[in-house]
Amino acid sequence: NMREVSLQPGEFYFGQDDTIIRTHLGSCVAITMWHPEQKRGGMCHYMLPSRGHSTMSLDGRYADEAIQLFINEISKYPAPIREYEVKLFGGGNMFIEQQTLNTMNVAIRNIKAAWQLTQHLGLTIKAHHLGHAGHRSLIFELANGNVWVRHHRLPHR
After folding, report:
1. So what's the pLDDT on residue 92?
2. Is 101 exposed, middle or buried (CB count within 10 Å of its CB: 0-12, 13-18, 19+)?
């Protein structure tokens, strides 16, 4: 009797082993964290690297604040964040015309933020599927840590 959670852009979920988390990603990035012994973990679905200014409440639309949401949840349990399996997904280029590297491209900036934030925390990335053209569908099973990815590629011109 599995519980299903669908994450929309900017949402965050952290829970136990009886949950399946689903989301769809374009230029957004999802980070999954899962603890193999505790069968506990979560997913964020962020839209931008940073808000650029601090505020009292955390907003999952921003990578740096989504990471803080993970830190806050993980700190409630005995295992340190470095014991979690971390996986990165998304950052797809949604427009064929923009497939060249462009530092202003949101997808590229989102991918860079994921790598920088996880590296800053000393986390090991177990798997990743980032970049390329098109969008992705994800299913994350908290019972076993599996993340199923379907990459819907854009047609070539």
Report:
1. 94
2. exposed
User: Among all chains, which residue has been given the structure tokens 């964290």?
Assistant: 33
Tokens representing 157 are: 């011109």
3 state DSSP class of 55: coil
Average pLDDT over residues 152-156: 78
Tell me the backbone φ, ψ of residue 99, rounded to 5 degrees: -75, -10
| Phi, psi (deg, nearest 5) at residue 144 | -135, -5
Residue 129's nearest CA partner among 36, 29, 43, 41 is: 29
Q: What pLDDT is recorded for position 155?
A: 72
pLDDT at 157: 55
- How far apart CA 48 and CA 27 sit, in angstroms, is 9
Q: Please give the structure tokens belonging to residue 72.
A: 């806050």
Q: Alpha helix (H) ranges present in 9-144? A: 63-74, 106-120
Phi first, then psi: what are they for 112, rounded to 5°?
A: -60, -40
Q: How far apart are CA 25 and CA 11, in angstroms?
A: 12
- Rounded to whole angstroms, the Cα distance separating 22 from 4 reads 7
